[in-house]
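Predicting holo structure, thymidine-5'-diphosphate bound.
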Amino acid sequence: MLTHVRLIDLPKIEDYRGNLSFLESYNHIPFEIKRTYWIYDVPGGQVRGGHAFKEQEEFIISMSGSFDIIVDDGNEKKVYSLNRSYYGLYIPRGLWREMRNFSTNSLALVISSTSFTEEDYIRDYDVFLKIKEL
Ligand code: TYD
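Done. Tokens:
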């Protein structure tokens, strides 16, 4: 399952006036964008995430600063460090994730394949492991 998690490089239009990057549904990321949200003003040492999604796919970009994403399929964990805005991490459905080590003033942009619904969350790690065993 972790084999489907991957860093995706985005276009980077370099310009003396400043660089520009962008992404489009199905072109740069493998799903249609339904929602975006962002995580900011994270106090030092705090951890975000700590759940899996049944359906939601995500693409996460560090728009500013840096942070780590730990992705876990129930057997194996992998750590990705994000620190530039011209690439991001694609996370398919069904994987546990945590976000840690946020730098001061970091800004995490999350692009999601679904609208928000609490029913899509698996927030209990033991429940996650049980579902993975099925
Ligand atoms: P949650 O996804 O648990 O945060 P984390 O980034 O740590 O995984 O969301 C925190 C709270 O915000 C939770 O009560 C649900 C709410 N929320 C929304 O209402 N809409 C959204 O799009 C998101 C992502 C969260």
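The chain is about 5% helix and 40% strand.
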